[in-house]
């Protein structure tokens, strides 16, 4: 966006022409960001259903497009064509407005997501603060939808959600603040002279902020837990707890407005993964290349985009995976987790990071040793995890079915078909006898 | 009901109408929940949404013809309701059931118990927010349904028992498949344990929640796993032996303080969950023994085509998946029952919810309904 502004500046169109052109450029960029975010959310819906299918040893959507990849378009089309029902006693203006507030809160934040070195709509000097602030708007949207639906389940869901988001913003902000302390800036990309959060990290894992020091590692987990809770995802999905609150705050919504809620939820999953990537995992930095080198070629820029999307994709996968593995917490346990554990740990991380910056001079041998040690620890844990997965894969023996694309091949134990065929065989034998 | 709503208004409470259609009421149960925020002051169960008049229907069909109706008393426990009705009528008639038929009944019932517990355990985890274990258990249940289908042709409403025996015999092929299923399934119990039983969130959701002490459990007439979770050692299979159960060995799992988790108390939701997990294992054990001991012989005693029991009345009870199922039959000597009365476990389990609900949270109510294993058709019949 900044480069577009500079280009318009140079066109010498006079003050009015420049402003109008700039306004048009803003609109185009905003529309592009919205479309990208919508597409990401849609594809994520498909990924989630697909991963859920494999986790639950079933196939998942596989009809629309190759391995079902266009399912979200079909679903979206269906929802857009459905009747938009408004309950008779609902507070109509608020009821209509609520989904848009939620969508603005989530999709607006995409303006400051650094997909690549040049691929950022607005590299604000308060970038991360802007994201934290704008996403808070979703709490208003959810509370509004819960209240305006005039349904007790919706109201309970809305209130749960408001309490949850307001509470979990504190640990999330503490996690973010640790990184802000390390980077010394709120900006996402920054420039060569004034590097932002991503530019002050590097491409290799030991240059990432997550492995900057042990406190930063802890800060990541605090941020991640709080972000999952803020996004109303399992195990913190109380506002839409299906088995308790029917569908929570969006019980009464149908058609397009429901699609709005739905897409906003998934866009939010990507958003939190993207923010985690930016803050802790080096963003679009490619190992072995400096930002200056990347700037020289559009292909390297695209490589940076691919790296960013891949990192954020891993984050999304973890969130989806958690959802299909864990049960849900109870309201009091949820609040207890936030106020009794996450907030104190978050403050400890913040103070720890501050003390680290104060005591260990940047770039010194001790600093580098800590980076290396933390990264080695993290990678060791990861290796242990993969070893454990391998152990279970080996142990499951012939029951294992790793048909990841799930094209319908059946595993070695095929109870249903066997017995069907065999039952038919018996009936045949009985007939002959 | 309007009275209840008014009381709540005076006390500045929110009245939530949970059901008849609600994702966690498993059918059409209804609760009027009085809450102050998330905390309930009481939850009043309301029955009658699934009343089909099954007891009255008995009076218009003949003795043998009522058997398919017994399937519908509880769609998850058709084998047990079949068997208890058959036992009651057999006692009236004084019929001896052949040994092989008794074993087949036990095999069918234990398969049914497994299928039912899969649904129950799956629903408990699903109501607490974990969907995946439910799907895994449904996958296993599918095999059981296939086995039962090739046993009697039906997957849910089995109609397998007959007065004096069972409808169909099994062959070696079927028994081999059952054995193969057990070989496949028994390691999966451990997998289920690893996946969900010790999950910290799940344990904290259930551990000291909604405790029913042994006295209350007896006073409110709880039966089966719910009763045993409270520490009362009572199992109809062992204490009022029937069918082939005296010839097989099994243990009766009980709820104990601190079992599975240090904070857990006998009679809380977690103990009810654990007792059912253990019962699955015991059912597998019974099935293995039945496979070994299954004698040759007839599968049905000689019973006249038109059954006319002498004018008398009789009660029979079996240990269903939810506990004691009782059937009380009265004969006036005619070809049709004079009266059939069912005693089912969900009704008493449902009634205790009002007693234990004050002070629980809405999320706990879901756990209570799921672990008490209340099922709508059984409460109403």
Give an overview of the whole structure.
Chain A is mainly α. Helices cover 67% and strands 0% of the residues of chain A. In chain A, helix 2 packs across helix 3 (71-81), helix 4 (92-109) runs antiparallel to helix 6 and helix 7 packs parallel to helix 13 (331-359). The longest helix of chain A is centred in the N-terminal third of the chain and has 42 residues, at 14-55. Chain A is globular. Mean pLDDT of chain A is 82; it is low at 406-423. Chain B has 381 residues and is mainly alpha-helical. Chain B has a single domain, classed as Orthogonal Bundle (Cytochrome-c3 Hydrogenase, chain B). Chain B has helices at 2-10, 54-57, 67-71, 78-93, 99-127, 132-152, 172-197, 200-206, 214-219, 224-229, 236-239, 269-293, 345-356, 362-372, 376-380; strands at 14-18, 30-36, 39-46, 161-162, 165-166, 313-320, 323-330, 339-343. In chain B, the strands form three sheets. Chain B has a three-stranded antiparallel sheet with strand order 1-2-3. The model of chain B has no long low-confidence stretch (mean pLDDT 85). The chains are: A mainly alpha (433), B mainly alpha (381). The interface between A and B is large, with 39 and 41 residues.
């Amino acid at each position: 966006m900044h480069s577009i502004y500079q280009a318009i500046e140079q066109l010498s169109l006079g003050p009015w022409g420049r402003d109008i052109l700039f306004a048009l450029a803003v609109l185009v960029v905003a529309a592009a960001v919205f479309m990208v975010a919508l597409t990401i959310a849609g594809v994520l819906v498909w990924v989630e259903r697909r991963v859920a299918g494999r986790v639950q040893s079933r196939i998942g959507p596989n009809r629309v497009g190759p391995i079902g990849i266009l399912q979200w378009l079909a679903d979206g089309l269906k929802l857009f064509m459905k009747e938009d029902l408004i309950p008779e006693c609902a507070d109509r203006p608020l009821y209509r407005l609520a989904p848009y507030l939620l969508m603005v809160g989530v999709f607006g934040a995409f303006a400051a997501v650094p997909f690549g070195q040049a691929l950022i709509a607005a590299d604000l000097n308060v970038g991360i603060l802007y994201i934290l602030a704008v996403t808070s708007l979703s709490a208003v949207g959810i509370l509004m939808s819960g209240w305006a639906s005039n349904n007790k389940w919706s109201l309970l869901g809305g209130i749960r959600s408001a309490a949850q988001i307001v509470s979990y913003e504190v640990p999330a902000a503490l996690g973010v603040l640790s990184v802000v302390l390390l980077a010394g800036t709120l900006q996402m990309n920054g420039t060569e002279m004034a590097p932002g959060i991503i530019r002050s990290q590097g491409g290799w894992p030991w240059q990432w902020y997550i492995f900057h020091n042990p406190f930063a590692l802890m800060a990541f987990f605090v941020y991640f837990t709080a972000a999952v809770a803020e996004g109303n995802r399992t195990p913190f999905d109380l506002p839409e707890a299906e088995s308790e609150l029917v569908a929570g705050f969006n019980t009464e919504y149908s058609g397009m407005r429901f699609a709005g809620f739905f897409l906003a939820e998934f866009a939010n999953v990507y958003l939190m993964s993207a923010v985690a990537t930016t803050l802790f995992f080096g963003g679009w930095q490619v190992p072995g290349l400096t930002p200056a080198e990347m700037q020289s070629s559009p292909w390297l820029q695209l490589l940076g985009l691919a790296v960013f999307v891949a990192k954020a994709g891993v984050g999304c996968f973890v969130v989806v995976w958690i959802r299909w593995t864990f049960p849900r917490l109870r309201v009091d346990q949820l609040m207890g987790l936030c106020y009794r554990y996450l907030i104190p740990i978050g403050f400890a991380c913040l103070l720890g990071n501050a003390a680290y910056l104060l005591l260990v001079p940047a770039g010194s041998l001790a600093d580098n040793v800590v980076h290396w040690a933390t990264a080695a620890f993290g990678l060791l844990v990861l290796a242990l995890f993969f070893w454990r997965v391998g152990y279970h894969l080996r142990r499951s023996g012939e029951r294992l079915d790793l048909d990841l694309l799930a094209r319908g091949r059946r595993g070695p134990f095929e109870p249903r078909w066997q017995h069907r065929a065999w039952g038919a065989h018996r009936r045949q034998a009985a007939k002959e006898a | 009901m309007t009275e209840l709503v008014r009381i709540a208004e005076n006390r500045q409470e929110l009245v939530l109408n949970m059901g008849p259609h609600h994702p966690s009421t498993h059918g059409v149960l209804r609760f009027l929940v009085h809450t102050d925020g998330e905390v309930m002051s009481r939850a009043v169960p309301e029955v009658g949404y699934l009343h089909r008049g099954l007891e009255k229907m008995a009076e218009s069909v003949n003795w043998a013809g009522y058997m398919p109706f017994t399937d519908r008393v509880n769609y998850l426990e058709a084998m047990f309701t079949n068997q208890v009705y058959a036992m009651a009528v057999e006692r009236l008639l004084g019929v001896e059931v052949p040994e092989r038929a008794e074993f087949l009944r036990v095999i069918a019932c234990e398969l049914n118990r497994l299928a039912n517990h899969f649904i129950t355990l799956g629903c408990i985890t699903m109501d607490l927010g974990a969907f995946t274990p439910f799907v895994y258990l449904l996958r296993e249940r599918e095999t059981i349904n296939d086995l039962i289908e090739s046993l009697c042709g039906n997957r849910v409403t089995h109609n397998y028992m007959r007065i004096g025996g069972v409808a169909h015999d099994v062959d070696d092929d079927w028994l081999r498949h059952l054995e193969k299923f057990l070989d496949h399934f028994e390691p999966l119990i451990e997998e289920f344990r690893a996946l969900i039983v010790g999950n910290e969130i799940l344990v904290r959701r259930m551990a000291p929640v909604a405790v029913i002490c042994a006295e209350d459990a007896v006073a409110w007439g709880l039966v089966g796993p719910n009763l045993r979770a409270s520490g009362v050692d009572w199992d109809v299979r062992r204490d009022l032996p029937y069918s082939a159960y005296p010839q097989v060995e099994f243990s009766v799992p009980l709820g104990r303080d601190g079992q599975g988790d240090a904070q857990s108390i006998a009679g809380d939701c977690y103990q009810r969950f654990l007792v059912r997990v253990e019962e699955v294992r015991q059912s597998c054990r019974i099935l293995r023994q039945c496979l070994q001991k299954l004698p040759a012989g007839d599968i049905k005693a000689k019973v006249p085509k038109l059954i006319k029991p002498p004018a008398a009345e009789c009660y029979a009870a079996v240990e269903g998946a939810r506990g004691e199922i009782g059937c009380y039959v009265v004969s006036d000597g005619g070809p049709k029952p004079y009266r059939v009365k069912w005693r089912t476990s969900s009704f008493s389990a449902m009634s205790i919810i009002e007693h234990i609900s004050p002070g629980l949270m809405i999320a706990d109510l879901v756990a209570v309904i799921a672990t008490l294993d209340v099922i709508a058709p059984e409460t109403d019949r």
